Each structure stands twice: as structure tokens, then as C-alpha cells.
Amino acid sequence: MKVVANTRNAQGTSASRRLRLADKVPGILYGGSAQPVTIELDHNPLFHALRKETFHATILDMELDGKAERVLLRTYQMHPYKAQVLHIDFQRVAEDQPIHMRVPLHFVNQEVSPAVKGDAAVISHVLSQVDITCLPKDLPAFIEVDLSGLKSTDVVKVTDLTMPAGVKPVLHGKENPVVVTATIPGGAVEEAAAAAAAAAEVPATAQKAPAAPAAKAPAAKSDKDKKK
Fold this sequence. Notes:
The protein is of the alpha+beta class. It contains six helices and 13 strands. β2 and β3 (37-42) form a beta hairpin. It starts with a strand and ends with a helix.
């Protein structure tokens, strides 16, 4: 994706306020061997670009004063209640230097997993992004998480993910965050247990209980008994 920016000379709170009133966004470009540069960008194209997932997790082509720069979006600040970008930071990219990024996770085949099809399990996506490190050329736009083999009560952690070539997860110490869990709802567990208990109480070879004998009808009275 392409970003168009210009160098700005005026700095400070008042200068930034004037920029925003002119539908501009103040920002900064830093990193690499060059000095940090204060920049400004048109607000509306930037606002719409920020709504796209790829803008946050891919290397961007910045045109700065007509010159090309390879950059990454690092941080941005939004107005508390307006649809307005207040400030944005970009970092230069060196092709031979590893980068540290947070990329989105895309979950696929959840609906055909044994957990969902067989046990009606509830799948919880604990993480929606993961921290990775790689060279710029290996940076993925997202990491796919295939859940087709997920079983009930399974737990998928970061180290279980299949990373693209050249990409490694960033973990601190012995941490290994949970990405996905599969759990059977309590009601479904209770129903399954009750059905199993009922089946156990009635043996498969149980015989049908004999029918109770029919009651005899009272004998009819004779004429002699009637006279009495």
C-alpha cells in the first residue's frame, strides 16, 4: 500500500492544531540511519487506510516529498469520540534488519473440526494477533490457523502455530500464550452424562415383564340364591 506524506517544519501544539483544522495529520518518521523527520499527511485517505487490516501488518511504500521510503506503521492516536486521526508514527525499514511486528491471525476450517461437528463445542479465539520477528521480505500479511483437526478440550498455543518460512514467534522466557480453546457447553455435558446413565440402568438383554393375570368375573347367582 502507498502512503503520501510531506515534511513539515512547524512544530508544537498550536502548529498541530492548525494542521488538523486543515484536514491534515501530523506525524513522524524515524528509524534507520537517517534522522527522524516530522511529516504531515492528508487525513481522509489515511483514515480510510487505517480501516484496512493490511495497512497495519505490511510494509508500506511511502512517498515523502517525492522520494520513496519503505516504512511500517508503528502507532497512531485517534480522537476520543470523533472519527479523526490525531497523530501517526512510521518506522523506516532496512531490508537486512529483522523487524518485530504484530500480525493478525486468520482462523479457518473451524466449522468442520471434530470439536464442532461431533461435540458441538464452543471455540474461543483467545488471541487475534501474534508477535513475530522476521526479515522484511518474509513479513506475512497474516498467519493462518487451521482448526480442521481441533478436538474437544484441545488447547492451541503460540508454539503450535505453523509459521511461514523465515518467521518466528516472539516469546519472553517460558511464556506460551493460549490462542484457541475448545470446550463443550455445560448443558451438553450434562445431557450426555444423563443419557449414558439411563442406558446403563436398562440392560440390553432385559426381558419384557410378564403381564398381570386378568381378574375373574364374579359368578352369576342361581334362582335358588335369588329366592333367599
